[in-house]
Write a structure and sequence with these properties.
Elements lengths: L1 H19 L1 H14 L3 H13 L6 H13 L3 H13 L4 H5 L2 H4 L5 H13 L1 H30 L2 E4 L5 E6 L2 E7 L5 H15 L2 H27 L7 H8 L4 H8 L8 H8 L17 H13 L5 H8 L12 E5 L8 E2 L2 E2 L2 E5 L3 H12 L4 H11 L22 H10 L8
Antiparallel strand pairs: 1-2, 2-3, 4-7, 5-6
Helix pairs in contact: 1-2, 2-3, 3-4, 4-5, 5-8, 9-11, 15-16
Length: 419
């Protein structure tokens, strides 16, 4: 009786999960069909999953390929095998499985292995990117250590009840808190400033800034010279284990791989070297950030999907808890042009996961945007396209009709019209 109750509980749990995740329900159905020997049914389900262009796990691709092979449909199995190759599954590992091992000597399989090995180049490219990431991690660690060395750290102790100013682990100044009158507060600030101007600190600051510049150039140069391989969940597992450096650079600097020289131009107009790892819009209010980004988008210096990434660089969320937004210059509304100026609006997209991907696919329209998406997924360790949350404090234009658009434009700082 206890076993029956336990089995019922497990089946109920699986059913509940499957209802919440349609893809998982299909996978469960396919696996049950395999167990029951209904291979044609399983093949149909895997075909349905594949056509959805949703993320298919390596295990399911493998199962689908084996099912097709058992049905004698090598041509159908190839599409699943191709995806396994892109995910870094070696030919040797594949040929160790009996259903494929039986084909090793056939002309059909030997001809196909050439294609498989070519697709394996994606795996070697992943290793290339992994080397780059490791290098950037090391660079970041050294810069972070240097930043600690050049920083001053005011500490209010609880035992001595005094404020100390430290540099390189040494106490340069210590003022009892009871003596910190308004005048002494000013003195404290002067002491802090004097620490900032110490020759040894300035020398390290110069080294830090030079290192930041080098890291910046390395980052931009790498993505300008390297084509991004097809990214998959299998390959993203490696990215998911990476600590922070590239994430920090791309979020705080708003450097996305497709920006190129436009990124450098945008950044250099808004920051100095010492702010390299502190966010390029330090001191700017959110509306000013929006205006800068939207203007750059209108001028063609930023792509719309790059702009949405920039506006939400603090709010990249886990893909299970998101709202997806598209930033675009609306070409359909007659009120797009108001008094010779443009307006931009946010359009929320809230379909199911596979519908979201289709929606992005249909609205992108610009060449190489697919590669850009894959880069962003890898860099930000997210397995779904663009997971964002927009806080109210980021004032981005959202118009439901022409009247609200005109009302906003009458109060907002106008954008220059780009002919």
């Amino acid at each position: 009786m206890k076993r029956l109750l336990l089995l019922f509980g497990i089946l109920f749990s699986l059913s509940s999960v499957a209802q919440q995740h349609p893809k998982l329900a299909l996978i469960n159905e396919a696996e049950l069909a395999i167990v029951d020997g209904q291979l044609e049914k399983a093949a149909g389900i895997y075909e349905q999953l594949f056509l959805q262009k949703d993320e298919i796990w390596a295990q399911d691709l493998y199962n689908a390929a084996v099912v097709e092979m058992k049905l004698g449909s090598f041509e159908y199995a190839k599409k699943y095998l191709n995806e396994l190759a892109k995910r870094g599954i070696s030919l040797e590992a594949l040929e160790s499985v009996s259903v494929f091992e039986e084909m090793k000597s056939s002309f059909q399989w030997q001809s196909y292995t050439t294609v498989y090995n070519q697709l394996q180049e994606y795996s070697s490219k992943i290793n290339h990117y992994t080397d780059f990431i490791t290098d950037m991690e090391s660079t970041f660690d050294s810069l972070q250590l240097l930043s600690f060395e050049i920083s001053y750290i005011p500490i209010r102790t609880t035992t001595a009840d005094s404020t100390k100013i430290l540099f390189e682990g040494k106490t340069l100044y210590a003022i009892p808190n009871s003596e910190l009158t308004d005048g002494l507060q000013d003195l404290l600030l002067e002491k802090i400033d004097s620490v900032q101007q110490l020759p040894e600190r300035l020398k390290k600051l110069e080294k830090y800034n030079a290192g930041c510049n080098k890291a910046f150039e390395k980052y931009i140069s790498f993505f300008a010279k390297n084509n991004w391989p097809y990214e998959t969940k299998f390959n993203n597992v490696r990215a998911h284990t990476i600590a922070n450096p590239l994430n920090l650079i791309s979020r705080n600097l708003l450097l996305l791989p497709d920006l190129g020289s436009a990124a450098k131009d945008l950044i250099e107009t808004k920051t100095t070297n010492q702010h390299f790892f502190r966010g390029i819009f330090k001191g700017e209010d959110s509306l000013a950030i929006s205006n800068i980004v939207i203007k750059a988008t209108l001028e063609g210096r930023l792509k719309p999907f790059t702009a949405i990434q920039i506006l939400n660089y603090r709010e990249f969320l886990n893909f299970q808890n998101f709202k997806v937004f598209e930033l675009r210059i609306d070409q359909s509304e007659k009120c797009q042009e108001i008094n010779g100026q443009y307006f931009v609006k946010y359009l929320p997209l809230q379909e199911e996961l596979h519908e979201k991907y289709k929606s992005y696919e249909s609205t992108l329209g610009i060449q190489k945007q697919e590669d850009f998406i894959k880069k962003a997924l890898f860099m930000h360790r997210s397995l779904q396209p663009y997971s964002f949350n927009v806080r109210d404090r980021i004032e981005v234009n959202a118009f439901s009709n022409c009247e609200t658009a005109r009302a906003f434009m009458s109060d907002a700082e106008p954008f220059e019209r780009i002919e």
